[in-house]
Amino acid sequence: MSRPSPRSRAVRFGALAVTLALPLAACSGGDDSGDGAITVTATEAECTPSATELDAGVNHFRVTNKGQQSTELYVLRPDGSIVAERENIAPGIVAQVTAELAAGDYTLRCRANDSSDGITTALKVKGQAAAAGDPRLTAALASYRTYVEKQSEASLALTRQFADAVKAGDVEKAKALYAPSRVGWESVEPVAESFGDLDPKMDLREADLEAGQTWTGWHVIEKALWQGNTTEGMAPVADQLVADLQDLVTRVRKVEITPTSMANGAKELLDEVATGKITGEEEAFSHTDFVDMQANVDGARQVYTLLLPVVKDKDPALVTRIDAGFAKVDAQLAALRTGSGPADFKPYTELTEDGRKTLAADVNALAEPLSGLAGAVVG
Predict the structure, then answer these.
(1) In angstroms, rounded to a whole number, what is the distance separating the alpha carbons of residues 282 and 309?
(2) How distant is the alpha carbon of residue 253 from its chain centre?
(3) What are the strands of the beta sheet with 94-101, ordered from one edge?
(4) Cα 143 from chain centroid?
(5) Widest CA span of the chain, in angstroms?
(6) 119 and 82 in one domain?
């Protein structure tokens, strides 16, 4: 999950929030940035854009955190699914979110200090977006859609084997299949998370359960396997997990993907590592966090590779920085391997504090230039 802690999208976006009543002058469709970006002022009590009526197509949101706590910015569809996001915006920092928007109604949400609510502002998008002119982007989209479908299908196939082992009571086989079954999911997680209902059903951590919420998905079985060394009572959970993954496979065939959503997704995958996996909280019982990290990094690399021909032309300096960042993260993860298989990694518990800090620094150093990928692609 793309979050400071592995919190479900339903928890994060399902609660009612305050919709600001903005003065009429703010609804002019213009901006005051001087370069076409919609400026957004964010505090613990404010989420104010310079315009709430926007033209269809690529829109840049430049958010300034004037609060005392870190904040996040999201552009949401009516169903609560995410078009674009930026997390971990520290006080005093200015960050940019690029979103490709068709005509319709959207919500801008600022969310300070990992609160479950946040503050929202309604956005109205009008007009018709210009047709994509670069055939390289059309090719990249087609290739990425194929990648997402294949990764989802691979995760489903391995999860079926995992579920069979769980239902057969084969603890050791289930343990061996647990981490591999998650690789496909982790590599395309931002796309999967765009379906807000599936993510909490499949990937919610115990630590993020709300009062009265039913816990389902991988981590329920993970706890039983590693903490209880049992599969007792897990057959219904395993069957539901398979059904949810089948639902995902069906949905991704029709999911909306744009060059900007691809690029934003690459950054989100690095955020997955930097703010979740690096703490060891994701795989609290199996400690297979490095498997997830590698899948996140590989998913981000796939997006970058597909968009690279365009980015090379538009911003070669950015390419140099991203390449250097991937090289450092790759070296860090390679040092944690025990073999060449997708799940052949040391347990997270063997990572020293100094090692954690170094890995976190290198991941953050890669995430920073990746945050400029969307702007470079459509700029």
Answers:
(1) 34
(2) 19
(3) 46-49, 38-43, 57-65, 94-101
(4) 19
(5) 65
(6) yes
Q: Which residues lie below 8 Å from residue 32, measured CB to CB, with a gap of 6+?
A: 39, 50
* Kind plus residue range of the DSSP H or E element containing 100: strand 94-101
- Contacts for 91 with CB less than 8 Å, ≥ 6 apart: 65, 66, 67, 68, 69, 70
Phi, psi of 245 (to 5 degrees): -70, -35
Quote the number of domains for the chain: 2
Q: Measured between alpha carbons, how far is 233 from 231 in angstroms, rounded to an integer?
A: 6
Domain boundary among 98, 126, 154: 126
DSSP symbol at 105: E
Model confidence pLDDT, tens digit, residues 297-354? 999 999 999 999 999 999 999 999 999 999 999 999 999 999 999 999 999 999 999 9
Q: Containing domain of residue 188, as a range?
A: 135-378
State yes or no: pLDDT of 114 exceeds 80. no
The answer to the question of residue 1 being in a domain is no
For residues 200-219, average pLDDT: 91
pLDDT digits (tens, 9 = 90+) for 130-172: 655 688 998 999 999 999 999 999 999 999 999 999 999 999 9
3-class secondary structure per residue, 33-98: CCCCCEEEEEECCEEEECCCEEECEEEEEEEEECCCCCEEEEEECCCCCEEEEEEEECCCCEEEEE
